[in-house]
Write a structure and sequence with these properties.
By secondary structure, the protein is of the alpha/beta class. The protein folds into three domains: 96 residues, Nucleotidyltransferase, domain 5, CATH 3.30.420.40; 94 residues; 106 residues, no CATH class. The protein is built from 13 helices and seven strands. α7 packs across α9, α9 runs antiparallel to α11 and α10 crosses α13. The protein is globular and about 80 Å long. 33% of the residues are buried. It holds the Pfam family DEDD_Tnp_IS110. Keywords: Coiled coil. It comes from Sedimentitalea xiamensis. This is IS110 family transposase.
Length: 338
């Protein structure tokens, strides 16, 4: 333990952690590896200082541990640390780069998430993981049966077609195919049961939680998207404007501007992928409804759909939805149709 340490920059891992201690003048006091137990002991015994880490796996856990012992935690996005790595890529260089990045006065940091917030994120990602597994099983079953002339459309809604074909004794299918098909259907049914249970819990939470209920008033946003915003987004009051929140999601154009000439490209995709994907899916559902109805009361949306490709319009609408989320959350208001 050293009393004149101003910052501990930690390169995280599973069992071996590299710790770079920095003094008040920015000089490196030591840079050495510690075990998991010794790191916990160091954070407990070290007088309050700055603890800097990359915002990566397990960083929020160690951030909460450091905060409990009175330290100031700075989580630096990994993309902002990389430019400070000198020459070779190793643990010592990474720890020094984290310290250098965390000392920059204009650096942006990630807020440490609470255990409850991460718990909501686990529930959301479990739901998404099970949906992907069910889709994988349905596609595998469709592919197997297609080899025997049984073809069904994509999606869970068409699963009954395959189930009836497997049960129909008149269908020319070998016995092993029927047995394997029954295994697929059983696994799909189990996953569907859990998926519906998780979806019901998200919907129930959206009715009791004021923030989730407020977000669900926005067209194109349902309980799943609202739950993703609550689980993955930081406190929206930390953003100066709705545009900044949309930029954090990666829904603004990538810039390659110089010499006063503005050059805008496709969306940056630098932000939170789960929320961005769900907003675009919700926006696409609204656009399909507008196309099917032949117009929309919203003149901006109707003109956008008329002159732009659907995906471009969906990204633009998702950007607007992100700004609505910021406005409604910060002002504690429900959505009102203009």
């Amino acid at each position: 333990m050293t009393t004149n340490i101003n910052m501990l920059a930690i390169d995280l891992a599973k069992g071996s952690f590299q710790v770079c201690a920095v003094g008040p003048e920015g000089t490196v006091l030591y840079n050495r590896g510690l075990s998991r137990t010794r790191l916990a002991t160091l954070l407990a015994e070290q007088p309050a200082c700055i603890v800097a880490m990359e915002a990566c796996a397990t960083s929020h856990h160690w951030g909460r541990v450091a905060q409990r012992h009175g330290h100031e935690v700075r989580l630096v996005p990994a993309a902002y640390v990389k430019p400070f790595v000198k020459r070779q890529k190793n643990d010592r260089a990474d720890a020094e780069a984290i310290a250098e990045a965390a000392l920059r006065p204009t650096m942006r940091f990630v807020a440490v998430k609470s255990a409850e917030t991460q718990g909501r994120a686990v529930a959301f990602r479990t739901h998404q993981c099970l949906v992907r597994q069910r889709t994988q099983l349905i596609n595998a079953l469709r592919g197997h049966l297609a080899e025997f002339g049984l073809v069904a459309p994509k999606g869970p809604a068409s699963l009954k077609v395959l189930e009836n074909a497997l049960e129909d004794q008149a269908t020319d299918l070998p016995r092993p195919v029927r047995e394997m098909g029954a295994i697929y259907l059983d696994q799909i049914a189990r996953l569907t049961e859990v998926i519906e249970q998780l979806a019901d819990e998200l919907e129930a939470a959206s009715k009791t939680d004021a923030q989730l209920r407020r977000l669900c008033t926005i067209p194109g946003i349902g309980p799943v998207t609202a739950g993703a915003v609550a689980a993955f987004a930081p406190d929206l009051d930390t953003f100066d404007s709705g545009r900044n929140f949309a930029a954090w999601l990666g829904l603004v154009p990538r810039q390659r501007s110089t010499g006063g000439k503005s050059r805008l490209g496709s969306v940056s995709k630098m932000g939170q992928t789960d929320i961005r994907r769900l907003l675009i899916v919700g926006a696409m559902s609204i656009i399909r409804w507008v196309v099917r109805k032949g117009g929309s009361p919203n003149r901006w949306l109707a003109a956008l759909v008329a002159r732009k490709p659907r995906m471009v319009a969906a990204v633009a609408l998702a950007n607007k939805m992100a700004r609505m989320i910021w406005t409604l959350t910060t002002k504690k208001e429900d959505y009102r149709m203009a």
